[in-house]
Amino acid sequence: MSSPSSSSSSPSPKTTIRVAGVPEHFVFPIFQAQEKGIFEKHGVEVEFVEHKGGTGSMINALKEGSVDIAVALTEGLVAEIAKNESDITLISTYVESPLCWAISVGKDSPINGVEELRGKTWGISRFTSGSHLMVFVLALQRGWDLKDLSFAVKGNIEGLKDGVNDGTADAFMWEVFMTKKAHDSGVIKKVGAIYTPWPCFMIAARKSVLNEKEDSIKKVLSALRESCKEFHQNEKEVIKAIAHKFDLSELDTEKWYSTVRITANNHISEAAIEQAIEILRKTGVVPDKDYDVTHFFDHRFSSLERDIKYMKLYNKPELITSLYAWLKHAGLASGSIKYTALLPYDQHHYHGVEALEKCIQETKIDANSRIINFGSGLGGCARFFAGKLGSEVLAVEIQDDLSSTASELTTRCALREKVHHISGDFLQIGKHLQTSGYDHIVSWLTVLHIPQRKDLFQICYKLLNDGGYFYAEDFYEKNPLTPSEKKTLKEEVYCGYLPSLEKYLNDLKEAGFKIEKAEDLTADWTNYTKERVEKYVGNKDEIVKICGEDIFGRLSTFYGKIASLFQAGNLGGVKIIARK
Question: pLDDT tens across 279-335, in order?
Fold first, then answer.
């Protein structure tokens, strides 16, 4: 009988995937996965290839085949795919959160506010760069005429700083943490900030490379997702490591860490692609034609996702643009302002100030109250409590552009000592807030966007003091919704889950709350939403003159659909007051 061979076959070598990126704090999870052996654990090797030249350099490297995948700015990748019918495709959303761009002027500039930059000259690194495209985002938000924009090419951050100080440019934009040292040292002056209306970084590859190395690249993405989870779980360790590696202060790193969401997930936001395309069309970077967003990503690696930005009220900056338009019309476009002057423009919940006055009365809000307002939008409710009563308010808003605008308005109202704005998901932010540290948690038409009710109510219960109030005005399912109504709520309102009132109240009770009041507002809101759309349409001429035809058309359509939902009799409205 023959004996078995004593030689053992050696394991097949791991495939090496070359990953391009800019060596900065955003790519820390990649370095972490290398150092901790996470890539090796998933059966793949990764070589990180530095590209200090940014997105354009990485796109060229993908085309040349010197790298396999790249972590690059969303708008640059979308532009490449849209204008060139490129072999490049998206495979992952690397950073879900948007990029915050600081708006800077010269150290001795007389300009102190963003609105003062209307018609001024903007320094940019190059045409079609982020510093160029974001000027258009700002102009569209503010309702500025795009024809009035002018630019001066300065090459890099040093050239931009020199430009605003020698007068060849009035302002420029750059990532907020990369300019912070210059602001702190007085080299330049910060006058504002703006967020990209899309996730800031995505991962892309050539289709031919995906076909050849599909399994290995999927292993890279799986390892990255594990590293991203560690990134968000080990806060203290990660902050120290990033500060050391990238020569940042721990305080600055902590501020950045608290707002960034790095996930390397397998979803591509439909609204993000559409918004990026719109800006790129308006700047002339890509042809002015219709695009099929399903052609921008590889379906083997990612799927299309509709997030809150797909909601008609939010997928273009209607609320922000119309706000600035009305403020300009009222002579309030810049300078200090009283919170009361904003009340006609910053109260977007039903019955405005009247609803806030009732909340104050029914939940005993006063000057000593510490309040969380989640879903704070443009900050109108938070400023009202702080301005009228002197209450301390934490305003939490998941949409960064709304939160940034709200913060600007709060500064102009001299209420920054009382109102603190945080941009992010309350379900995540709430985990890091002081337990039993608040007297009131309030929201208007916000819980309807959150399907994780039990998690939400448990977090609220944990954060409230004994006897503290939970207050919500919200939708509920009064009668069984039709498939058409469910579709409208999901696609137009970003409400994919709507419980009965009984279920709503039971979830609160299970979290530990005692229900003080559940007032059915359905009849009132049915009348209110009907009258709102009638009034809005009746004022068409004035609204179009001030805000434009597009904003009027989109908002009137949205208001009309909400009114129709209530009139059909299956959608309900409720005011809930509960106590810990």
Answer: 888 888 888 898 998 999 999 999 888 766 555 555 556 788 899 999 999 999 888
Sort 241 into a burial class: Cβ within 10 Å, 0-12 / 13-18 / 19+: middle
Reference 255, options 264, 266, 245, 242; nearest CA is 242
Whole-angstrom Cα distance, residue 170 to residue 193? 15
Residue with tokens 């993405």: 221
CB atoms inside a 10 Å sphere around CB 135: 26
Calculate ∠ Cα 270-307-134, nearest 5°. 65
The DSSP letter of residue 4 is: P
The residue behind tokens 């109260």 is: 347
pLDDT digits (tens, 9 = 90+) for 83-99: 867 799 999 999 999 99
Quote the CA–CA distance of 324 and 115 in Å, as a whole number: 9
Residues in CB range of 19: below 8 A, 6 or more apart: 30, 46, 47, 48, 49, 67, 68, 69, 70, 71, 220
Q: What tens digit of pLDDT does each residue of 495-518 get? A: 999 999 999 999 999 999 999 999
Give pTM, 2 decimals. Answer: 0.77
Rounded to an integer, the average pLDDT of 523-543 is 97
Helix (H/G/I), strand (E/B), else coil: 369: coil
Closest CA to 97 of 450, 318, 423, 403: 423
Please state, in angstroms and as integers, the Cα–Cα distance from residue 353 to each residue in 173, 356, 357, 440, following that order: 36, 5, 6, 18
Question: Beta-strand (E) ranges in 454-553?
Answer: 464-477, 514-520
Tokens of 100: 């915050």
For 476: left if phi > 0, alpha if psi spans -120 to 50, otherwise beta; the answer is: beta
φ, ψ at 517 (rounded to 5°)? -160, 140
Which tokens belong to 203? 């991962």
| E strand residue ranges, 361-463 | 370-374, 392-397, 419-423, 438-444
Report the pLDDT value the prediction gives residue 438, as an integer from 0 to 100. 97
The whole-angstrom separation of Cα 38 and Cα 373 is: 39
Residue-averaged pLDDT of the chain: 92
Dist CA 488 CA 187 (whole Å): 51
pLDDT at 314: 56
